[in-house]
Protein backbone atom coordinates (compact mmCIF):
# COMPACT_ATOMS: atom_id res chain seq x y z
CA UNK A 1 0.00 0.00 0.00
CA UNK A 2 2.91 2.33 0.78
CA UNK A 3 4.31 1.68 -2.67
CA UNK A 4 0.96 2.62 -4.29
CA UNK A 5 0.72 5.90 -2.36
CA UNK A 6 4.35 6.64 -3.18
CA UNK A 7 3.66 6.07 -6.90
CA UNK A 8 0.58 8.32 -6.77
CA UNK A 9 2.57 11.07 -5.03
CA UNK A 10 5.40 10.79 -7.53
CA UNK A 11 2.95 10.95 -10.43
CA UNK A 12 1.31 14.05 -8.92
CA UNK A 13 4.64 15.79 -8.47
CA UNK A 14 5.67 14.86 -12.01
CA UNK A 15 2.44 16.26 -13.44
CA UNK A 16 2.89 19.43 -11.40
CA UNK A 17 6.36 20.22 -12.69
CA UNK A 18 5.81 18.81 -16.22
CA UNK A 19 5.16 22.28 -17.80
CA UNK A 20 8.70 23.27 -16.83
CA UNK A 21 10.30 19.93 -17.67
CA UNK A 22 8.62 19.60 -21.07
CA UNK A 23 7.52 23.04 -22.28
CA UNK A 24 4.92 23.06 -24.99
CA UNK A 25 6.66 23.20 -28.33
CA UNK A 26 5.20 25.07 -31.24
CA UNK A 27 3.10 22.70 -33.25
CA UNK A 28 3.90 22.50 -36.96
CA UNK A 29 1.31 23.84 -39.26
CA UNK A 30 -1.17 21.09 -39.81
CA UNK A 31 -2.02 21.54 -43.44
CA UNK A 32 0.19 23.73 -45.62
CA UNK A 33 -1.52 22.15 -48.62
CA UNK A 34 -4.86 23.51 -47.40
CA UNK A 35 -3.29 26.95 -47.11
CA UNK A 36 -2.02 26.87 -50.68
CA UNK A 37 -5.33 25.51 -51.92
CA UNK A 38 -7.24 28.20 -50.03
CA UNK A 39 -5.07 30.89 -51.62
CA UNK A 40 -5.55 29.31 -55.06
CA UNK A 41 -9.33 29.35 -54.56
CA UNK A 42 -9.17 33.01 -53.54
CA UNK A 43 -7.10 33.96 -56.59
CA UNK A 44 -9.49 32.05 -58.86
CA UNK A 45 -12.50 33.93 -57.49
CA UNK A 46 -13.87 31.19 -55.20
CA UNK A 47 -12.85 32.62 -51.83
CA UNK A 48 -15.87 31.13 -50.00
CA UNK A 49 -15.62 27.64 -51.53
CA UNK A 50 -14.67 24.84 -49.10
CA UNK A 51 -11.13 23.63 -49.67
CA UNK A 52 -12.31 20.00 -49.78
CA UNK A 53 -14.49 20.53 -52.85
CA UNK A 54 -11.67 20.61 -55.47
CA UNK A 55 -10.30 17.38 -54.00
CA UNK A 56 -13.68 15.66 -54.30
CA UNK A 57 -14.07 16.88 -57.88
CA UNK A 58 -10.54 15.70 -58.69
CA UNK A 59 -11.25 12.20 -57.35
CA UNK A 60 -14.54 11.89 -59.25
CA UNK A 61 -13.11 13.27 -62.49
CA UNK A 62 -10.03 11.05 -62.24
CA UNK A 63 -12.22 7.97 -61.74
CA UNK A 64 -14.41 8.92 -64.71
CA UNK A 65 -11.44 9.54 -67.02
CA UNK A 66 -9.76 6.29 -65.96
CA UNK A 67 -12.99 4.33 -66.51
CA UNK A 68 -13.53 5.80 -69.97
CA UNK A 69 -9.92 5.12 -70.98
CA UNK A 70 -10.21 1.56 -69.69
CA UNK A 71 -13.43 0.93 -71.60
CA UNK A 72 -12.04 2.39 -74.84
CA UNK A 73 -8.54 0.91 -74.81
CA UNK A 74 -8.54 -1.86 -72.20
CA UNK A 75 -5.01 -0.82 -71.18
CA UNK A 76 -4.27 -0.33 -67.48
CA UNK A 77 -1.36 2.03 -68.18
CA UNK A 78 -3.47 4.31 -70.36
CA UNK A 79 -6.26 4.25 -67.76
CA UNK A 80 -3.75 5.21 -65.07
CA UNK A 81 -2.43 8.14 -67.11
CA UNK A 82 -5.98 9.27 -67.97
CA UNK A 83 -6.99 9.08 -64.31
CA UNK A 84 -3.98 11.15 -63.24
CA UNK A 85 -4.71 13.73 -65.93
CA UNK A 86 -8.37 13.90 -64.90
CA UNK A 87 -7.45 14.31 -61.22
CA UNK A 88 -5.05 17.16 -62.06
CA UNK A 89 -7.53 18.92 -64.36
CA UNK A 90 -9.50 20.84 -61.64
CA UNK A 91 -6.33 22.30 -60.14
CA UNK A 92 -4.95 23.21 -63.56
CA UNK A 93 -8.26 24.91 -64.35
CA UNK A 94 -8.13 26.88 -61.10
CA UNK A 95 -4.58 28.06 -61.86
CA UNK A 96 -5.57 29.01 -65.39
CA UNK A 97 -8.62 30.91 -64.14
CA UNK A 98 -6.50 32.73 -61.56
CA UNK A 99 -4.05 33.80 -64.28
CA UNK A 100 -6.91 34.99 -66.51
CA UNK A 101 -8.43 37.00 -63.68
CA UNK A 102 -5.08 38.64 -62.89
CA UNK A 103 -4.57 39.42 -66.57
CA UNK A 104 -8.05 40.88 -67.02
CA UNK A 105 -7.82 42.96 -63.84
CA UNK A 106 -4.30 44.21 -64.47
CA UNK A 107 -5.47 47.14 -66.56
CA UNK A 108 -8.26 48.05 -64.10
CA UNK A 109 -6.24 48.90 -61.01
CA UNK A 110 -4.98 52.19 -62.42
CA UNK A 111 -8.62 53.26 -62.89
CA UNK A 112 -9.35 52.22 -59.30
CA UNK A 113 -6.47 54.37 -58.06
CA UNK A 114 -7.67 57.35 -60.13
CA UNK A 115 -11.22 56.98 -58.79
CA UNK A 116 -9.94 56.80 -55.21
CA UNK A 117 -7.83 59.93 -55.75
CA UNK A 118 -10.86 61.79 -57.14
CA UNK A 119 -13.06 60.68 -54.23
CA UNK A 120 -10.48 61.64 -51.59
CA UNK A 121 -9.88 65.03 -53.20
CA UNK A 122 -13.65 65.59 -53.25
CA UNK A 123 -13.67 65.28 -49.45
CA UNK A 124 -15.01 61.74 -49.04
CA UNK A 125 -13.77 59.59 -46.19
CA UNK A 126 -11.75 56.49 -47.00
CA UNK A 127 -14.58 54.01 -46.23
CA UNK A 128 -17.01 55.99 -48.37
CA UNK A 129 -14.47 56.34 -51.18
CA UNK A 130 -13.88 52.58 -51.28
CA UNK A 131 -17.59 51.78 -50.97
CA UNK A 132 -18.37 54.17 -53.82
CA UNK A 133 -16.41 51.92 -56.16
CA UNK A 134 -19.35 49.50 -56.01
CA UNK A 135 -21.16 51.94 -58.30
CA UNK A 136 -18.39 53.84 -60.09
CA UNK A 137 -15.62 51.26 -60.26
CA UNK A 138 -14.82 48.90 -63.15
CA UNK A 139 -17.68 46.43 -63.72
CA UNK A 140 -15.46 43.39 -63.13
CA UNK A 141 -14.62 44.62 -59.62
CA UNK A 142 -17.94 46.08 -58.50
CA UNK A 143 -19.11 42.86 -56.84
CA UNK A 144 -16.16 42.79 -54.44
CA UNK A 145 -16.57 46.46 -53.55
CA UNK A 146 -20.31 45.97 -53.09
CA UNK A 147 -19.57 43.23 -50.56
CA UNK A 148 -17.15 45.61 -48.86
CA UNK A 149 -19.86 48.29 -48.66
CA UNK A 150 -22.32 45.81 -47.14
CA UNK A 151 -19.68 44.55 -44.73
CA UNK A 152 -18.77 48.10 -43.74
CA UNK A 153 -22.41 48.99 -43.16
CA UNK A 154 -22.88 45.92 -40.98
CA UNK A 155 -19.70 46.12 -38.89
CA UNK A 156 -18.57 49.74 -39.15
CA UNK A 157 -14.96 48.56 -38.85
CA UNK A 158 -12.81 49.63 -41.79
CA UNK A 159 -9.76 47.50 -41.01
CA UNK A 160 -11.52 44.13 -40.86
CA UNK A 161 -13.69 44.98 -43.87
CA UNK A 162 -10.58 45.95 -45.84
CA UNK A 163 -8.91 42.65 -44.94
CA UNK A 164 -11.92 40.71 -46.19
CA UNK A 165 -11.93 42.82 -49.36
CA UNK A 166 -8.26 41.97 -49.87
CA UNK A 167 -8.99 38.27 -49.48
CA UNK A 168 -11.87 38.54 -51.94
CA UNK A 169 -9.83 40.37 -54.61
CA UNK A 170 -6.70 38.20 -54.06
CA UNK A 171 -4.46 40.28 -56.29
CA UNK A 172 -0.95 41.66 -55.65
CA UNK A 173 -1.86 45.17 -56.84
CA UNK A 174 -5.06 45.15 -54.77
CA UNK A 175 -2.97 44.16 -51.74
CA UNK A 176 -0.76 47.22 -52.24
CA UNK A 177 -3.73 49.56 -52.68
CA UNK A 178 -5.61 48.24 -49.65
CA UNK A 179 -2.53 48.25 -47.43
CA UNK A 180 -1.90 51.88 -48.46
CA UNK A 181 -5.46 52.77 -47.51
CA UNK A 182 -5.19 50.94 -44.18
CA UNK A 183 -1.97 52.75 -43.34
CA UNK A 184 -3.52 56.08 -44.26
CA UNK A 185 -6.51 55.23 -42.07
CA UNK A 186 -4.28 54.42 -39.08
CA UNK A 187 -1.61 57.13 -39.21
CA UNK A 188 -3.11 59.80 -41.45
CA UNK A 189 -2.75 60.20 -45.18
CA UNK A 190 -1.49 63.63 -46.19
CA UNK A 191 0.44 61.99 -49.05
CA UNK A 192 -2.27 59.47 -49.94
CA UNK A 193 -3.24 61.08 -53.24
CA UNK A 194 0.39 61.32 -54.35
CA UNK A 195 1.05 57.68 -53.44
CA UNK A 196 -2.06 56.51 -55.27
CA UNK A 197 -1.15 58.53 -58.35
CA UNK A 198 2.38 57.08 -58.39
CA UNK A 199 0.95 53.59 -57.92
CA UNK A 200 -1.52 54.21 -60.76
CA UNK A 201 1.26 55.27 -63.14
CA UNK A 202 3.40 52.27 -62.16
CA UNK A 203 0.53 49.80 -62.59
CA UNK A 204 -0.47 51.28 -65.95
CA UNK A 205 3.09 51.09 -67.32
CA UNK A 206 3.53 47.52 -66.04
CA UNK A 207 0.20 46.42 -67.56
CA UNK A 208 1.10 47.90 -70.95
CA UNK A 209 4.51 46.23 -70.99
CA UNK A 210 3.15 42.86 -69.88
CA UNK A 211 0.37 42.92 -72.47
CA UNK A 212 2.87 43.55 -75.24
CA UNK A 213 5.25 40.80 -74.12
CA UNK A 214 2.47 38.26 -73.53
CA UNK A 215 1.03 38.94 -77.00
CA UNK A 216 4.41 38.16 -78.54
CA UNK A 217 4.87 35.01 -76.45
CA UNK A 218 1.34 33.62 -76.78
CA UNK A 219 2.59 31.03 -79.29
CA UNK A 220 4.66 29.37 -76.54
CA UNK A 221 1.61 28.11 -74.62
CA UNK A 222 -0.10 27.02 -77.85
CA UNK A 223 2.97 25.07 -78.93
CA UNK A 224 3.24 23.44 -75.50
CA UNK A 225 -0.41 22.33 -75.54
CA UNK A 226 -0.14 20.92 -79.07
CA UNK A 227 3.11 19.17 -78.19
CA UNK A 228 1.66 17.44 -75.13
CA UNK A 229 -1.76 16.52 -76.60
CA UNK A 230 -0.80 15.31 -80.08
CA UNK A 231 1.14 12.15 -79.01
CA UNK A 232 -1.73 10.99 -76.82
CA UNK A 233 -4.25 11.39 -79.62
CA UNK A 234 -2.00 9.18 -81.76
CA UNK A 235 -1.68 6.71 -78.87
CA UNK A 236 -5.46 6.55 -78.44
CA UNK A 237 -5.96 5.89 -82.15
CA UNK A 238 -3.34 3.12 -82.09
CA UNK A 239 -4.73 1.56 -78.90
CA UNK A 240 -8.19 1.25 -80.43
CA UNK A 241 -6.83 -1.26 -82.95
CA UNK A 242 -6.40 -4.82 -81.56
CA UNK A 243 -2.76 -5.15 -82.60
CA UNK A 244 -1.95 -1.76 -81.09
CA UNK A 245 -3.68 -2.67 -77.83
CA UNK A 246 -1.78 -5.97 -77.71
CA UNK A 247 1.54 -4.17 -78.23
CA UNK A 248 0.90 -1.62 -75.49
CA UNK A 249 -0.34 -4.33 -73.11
CA UNK A 250 3.15 -5.86 -72.95
CA UNK A 251 5.61 -4.81 -70.20
CA UNK A 252 7.61 -2.84 -72.74
CA UNK A 253 4.44 -1.08 -73.90
CA UNK A 254 3.55 -0.15 -70.32
CA UNK A 255 7.03 1.31 -69.83
CA UNK A 256 6.63 3.32 -73.05
CA UNK A 257 3.27 4.73 -71.91
CA UNK A 258 4.45 5.66 -68.39
CA UNK A 259 7.74 7.12 -69.64
CA UNK A 260 5.87 9.07 -72.31
CA UNK A 261 3.52 10.51 -69.69
CA UNK A 262 6.41 11.60 -67.47
CA UNK A 263 8.35 13.13 -70.38
CA UNK A 264 5.23 14.91 -71.67
CA UNK A 265 4.58 16.45 -68.26
CA UNK A 266 8.20 17.53 -67.79
CA UNK A 267 8.41 19.00 -71.30
CA UNK A 268 5.12 20.87 -70.88
CA UNK A 269 6.07 22.32 -67.50
CA UNK A 270 9.52 23.29 -68.74
CA UNK A 271 8.15 25.01 -71.85
CA UNK A 272 5.54 26.93 -69.87
CA UNK A 273 8.06 27.91 -67.18
CA UNK A 274 10.60 29.20 -69.71
CA UNK A 275 8.00 31.20 -71.61
CA UNK A 276 6.13 32.66 -68.61
CA UNK A 277 6.75 36.10 -67.23
CA UNK A 278 7.34 36.24 -63.46
CA UNK A 279 4.15 37.17 -61.66
CA UNK A 280 4.22 39.71 -58.80
CA UNK A 281 3.96 38.07 -55.40
CA UNK A 282 1.28 38.80 -52.81
CA UNK A 283 3.54 40.08 -50.06
CA UNK A 284 0.56 41.27 -47.99
CA UNK A 285 -1.82 38.42 -48.87
TrEMBL record:
InterPro entries: T2SS_GspF_dom (IPR018076). Keywords: Cell membrane, Membrane, Transmembrane, Transmembrane helix. It comes from the Bacteria. The chain crosses the membrane at residues 68-94, 219-240, 246-268. PANTHER family: INTEGRAL MEMBRANE PROTEIN-RELATED, POSSIBLE CONSERVED ALANINE RICH MEMBRANE PROTEIN. It is a multi-pass membrane protein. This is Type II secretion system protein F (GspF). Its main location: membrane. Residues 113-238 form the Type II secretion system protein GspF domain.
